[in-house]
Amino acid sequence: MGWIQSIFSLNKEKEYVTKLALIGEAHNAFDPEELQILMRELNYTPSAKQHSEADVESFKLKLPESSKDRFSIIYYLVSSFMKNGALSEKKESLIRKLISGLELSREKAAELVSFLKMNIRNGLSEEDSFSRLGYLLERAKYA
User: Fold this and answer.
1) Backbone phi, then psi, for 55, in 5-degree steps?
2) What integer is the mean pLDDT of 35-63?
3) For residue 105, which phi and psi values (nearest 5 degrees)?
4) Which tens digits make up the pLDDT trace of 17-32?
5) Strands of 7-130, DSSP E
6) What is the pLDDT of residue 39?
7) What 3-state DSSP class applies to 43?
8) Which of 19, 141, 125, 139 is nearest to 67 (CA)?
């Protein structure tokens, strides 16, 4: 039964990654090489039309709120790009650009990608990684 759930969760994560890519594309965040990587590695199809800020806001509203779901998206991205071995600097930069759509600071995004890379190399599961790194996705609460 768990394998059926994993198929559905991967489809959901792919959908969220597409929304993050559309947000990045609307902000002209990707160079042509990065778009090629997205197309090759994640089967992303660039948008034919230019998206407005209203479109971007609607994409952001469709992204998950919970730390666990947001972490799953990032874990999916890092592990997908690492399927063929090490994560190049270009791919790492692309991941940071994509996850900026989750409204994560550059510093937290860089730290998260760096530690996730290490965790995946060491064979840690998504759950184990979340228990160690989930705090990076918590929104700051000020009194």
Assistant:
1) -60, -45
2) 90
3) -65, 155
4) 999 999 999 999 999 9
5) none
6) 93
7) coil
8) 139
Query: Averaged over 4-16, what is the pLDDT?
Result: 67
Residue 106: which H helix or E strand, with range?
helix 106-121
Mean pLDDT of all residues belonging to the chain: 87
Which pLDDT band, with edges at 50, 70 and 90, does 40 fall under?
very high
Residue 142: CB atoms within 10 Å: 4
Nearest alpha-carbon partner for 22 in 39, 40, 47, 48: 47
CA 123 to chain centre: 19
Q: Which of 143, 81, 61, 70 is nearest to 108 (CA)?
A: 70
Q: What is the C-alpha radius of gyration for the chain, rounded to an integer number of angstroms? A: 15
- Enter the tokens of residue 132: 């160690």
Instruction: For CA atoms 82, 129, 114, 110, give the dihedral sign.
Output: positive
In terms of phi and psi (left: phi > 0; alpha: psi -120 to 50; beta: otherwise), the region of 87 is: beta
Which two tokens mark 9? 């969760």
Interval 101-132: pLDDT, tens: 998 888 999 999 999 999 999 999 999 999 99
